[in-house]
Design goal:
With 217 residues, the protein is mainly beta. The protein has 3 helices and 13 strands.
């Protein structure tokens, strides 16, 4: 019986999808058990790939891979040197703050805010780079205006918010794609961002940058 089962077991092992090579950065995230890695081929790439990694019994495994993403229209720039309006996605390691959107909460583990009329992301000095509920100004991001697609499912990235430096950049999110490069966010297909909103936990790290940068973090 065992001899008859061995060929079948071998076929199963060969057909099983292997995890991608474990990125070295996963060894530098402390006690984290989840990480989302977003990369593009070069610093000027406007599209890339995201992989969700999860540690199980001390070993990192791919939880969801090969997720296509749109990046900033001007690619990546180091988080410490980017500025408001430069159209780049910040490169570095970030925490993820909370989820929000115009769709019903799909089951977020990090909290959920509903996008309603007068939901803004502030670009004003007084409350820069924070959620605000008021009449949106010309410097704010009007979240409700993009409720039909981009801001149905969103995760706020902990970029430039501890403390917020006025002018360095605001409103960096993971959100649903509208099929084009972003102003600095990372956008995903609907099924992928819906999954991520449900998968992300309080200890999840986001790592972003061109492949050569991420490989050396």
């Amino acid at each position: 019986m065992i001899r008859r089962l061995l060929p079948l077991l071998l076929l199963v092992l060969l057909a099983a999808p292997a995890d991608a090579a474990t990125p070295p950065v996963l060894g530098h995230l402390g006690s984290a058990t989840r990480a989302l890695i977003v990369t593009g081929p070069t610093a000027s790439s406007t599209t890339g790939t995201a992989t969700a990694w999860q540690k199980v019994n001390g070993t990192w495994h791919v939880a969801r891979g090969s997720m296509p993403v749109h990046l900033g229209r001007n690619g990546f720039r180091s988080a410490s040197s980017r500025h408001e309006g430069d159209g780049t996605t910040p490169a570095g390691k970030f925490h993820l703050r909370y989820a929000f959107g115009s769709a019903p909460n799909p089951g977020s583990r990090i909290g959920w805010k509903a996008v309603v009329p007068q939901s803004c992301w502030s670009g004003e000095r007084a409350d820069y780079n924070r959620w605000a509920h008021r009449a949106c100004t010309s410097r704010d991001e009007d979240l409700y205006a993009s409720r039909r697609t981009a801001y149905r499912y969103v995760v706020a990235v902990g970029f430039n918010d501890n403390p917020a430096v006025y002018g360095r950049g605001s409103a960096i999110f993971l959100h649903q794609s509208i099929g084009v490069a972003t102003s600095g966010c990372v956008s995903f297909d609907e099924a992928d961002i819906n999954y991520l909103v449900r998968w992300i936990t309080a200890d999840t790290w986001l790592v972003m940058g061109p492949e050569s940068y991420v490989s050396h973090l």
